[in-house]
């Protein structure tokens, strides 16, 4: 069966390149690779002995001993970088709006409840609610661009029912909210006999990974994912331990979906309800990756290995689907530029347009695709 996906790698490549250059991704565009950590070296050696190819993680962090490089002040993952060695959208000028005239107003605490449509399928206003003041406001619009993630973007469209959109905006084919896709993932931890041989870890969360099992004949469905070093958040927690993370995009089934509940919150807004479960293929794929990760831990000399309980049944981060892009209204919600089929001025430009979660971190793909879509809209407006 032909897959309805209208965006090619060639479409995205210029925007990938621009974003990765702006973020100074290590090991790309002349930027130095980030050196492997002490644990990363052990993992790399063990993988090579098993015939697995280790690679340096492309990080948005300047390496140590470079200008404004990492000072390895913590075991860094979710923490703010005090020296700006780790990229962020402000430090790296990713939000360049110089090509867009006008100003931006930010309305804090303003919740968009629904989009008002005219009879000609044109959005004319947003109906909003401000919980702190219990005020309802109506904001006239020229166009609506939604970037609210795969759950909230779909929920907004489903709440926007009217006589012009009786089942919600873009939902004529009952596709809005369907195909919710997370990552399936898990962790295995190996303990070494002599904890002093592996002291506390200071530096990035990960420096080494392998994508040998991204596509591999031994993986169920032949489509696996990544295995990579995953240091614990506190430096001291890593003493005597090596932890590996394995991750893959799950199958995008239509029964995994976002819906509106019949119950409403104190402000009269329907609660969001999610139907979600993993497939047998997903469970088999993540188990295969877990076994390969534990082979690596045994090879590097771990005397005791613990597989942390899978939490995949609750989903995870990296949300995708629910507003899938495609060429045909019967099989998708938005077109290749993010415009909702059949409407003139409502666009979605976030991870919800991606039909599959992918097997790696999606941030750069979401950023590249959003910029491509935004520039397409700007060219159309001009």
TrEMBL record:
Sequence similarity: Belongs to the GMC oxidoreductase family.
Organism: Cupriavidus taiwanensis
Keyword Magnesium: no
Record key words, sorted: FAD, Flavoprotein, Oxidoreductase
Protein name: Sugar-alcohol dehydrogenase
Cofactor: FAD
Keyword Oxidoreductase applies: yes
InterPro entries: 4Fe4S_Fe-S-bd, FAD/NAD-bd_sf, GMC_OxRdtase_N, GMC_OxRtase_C, P2Ox-like
PROSITE patterns per record: 4FE4S_FER_2
Organism ancestry: Bacteria, Pseudomonadati, Pseudomonadota, Betaproteobacteria, Burkholderiales
GO molecular function, a single term: flavin adenine dinucleotide binding
């Amino acid at each position: 069966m032909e897959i309805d996906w209208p965006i090619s790698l060639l479409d995205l490549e210029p925007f990938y390149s621009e974003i990765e250059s702006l973020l100074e991704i290590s090991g790309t565009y002349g930027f130095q690779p980030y050196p492997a950590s002490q644990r990363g070296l052990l993992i790399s050696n063990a993988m090579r002995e098993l015939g697995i190819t280790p690679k340096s993680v492309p990080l948005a962090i300047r390496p140590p001993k470079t200008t404004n490089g990492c000072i390895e002040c913590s075991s860094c993952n979710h923490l703010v970088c005090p020296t700006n060695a780790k990229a962020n959208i402000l430090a790296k000028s990713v939000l360049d709006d110089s090509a867009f005239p006008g100003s931006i107003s930010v309305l804090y605490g303003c919740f968009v409840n629904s989009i008002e449509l005219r009879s000609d399928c044109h959005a004319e206003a947003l109906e909003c609610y401000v919980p702190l003041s219990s005020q309802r406001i109506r904001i006239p619009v020229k166009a609506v661009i939604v970037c609210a993630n795969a759950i909230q973007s779909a929920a907004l469209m489903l709440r926007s029912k009217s006589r012009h959109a009786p089942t919600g905006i873009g939902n004529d084919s009952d596709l809005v909210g369907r195909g919710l896709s997370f990552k399936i993932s898990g962790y295995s931890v190996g303990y070494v006999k002599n904890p002093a041989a592996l002291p506390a870890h200071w530096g990035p969360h990960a420096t080494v990974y392998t994508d040998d099992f991204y596509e591999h004949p031994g993986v169920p469905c032949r489509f696996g994912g990544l295995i990579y070093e995953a240091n614990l958040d506190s430096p001291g927690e890593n003493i005597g331990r090596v932890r590996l993370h394995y991750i893959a995009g799950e199958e995008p089934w239509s029964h995994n979906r976002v819906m509106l509940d019949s119950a409403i919150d104190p402000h009269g807004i329907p609660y969001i309800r999610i139907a979600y479960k993993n497939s047998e293929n997903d469970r088999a794929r993540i188990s295969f990756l877990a076994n390969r990760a534990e082979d690596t831990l045994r090879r590097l000399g771990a005397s005791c290995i613990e597989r942390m309980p899978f939490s995949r049944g609750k989903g995870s981060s990296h949300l995708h689907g629910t507003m899938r892009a495609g060429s045909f209204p019967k099989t998708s919600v938005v077109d290749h530029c993010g415009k909702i089929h059949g409407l003139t001025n409502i666009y979605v430009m976030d991870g919800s347009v991606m039909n599959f979660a992918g097997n790696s971190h999606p941030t750069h793909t979401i950023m590249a695709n959003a910029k491509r879509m935004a520039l397409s809209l700007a060219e159309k407006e001009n």
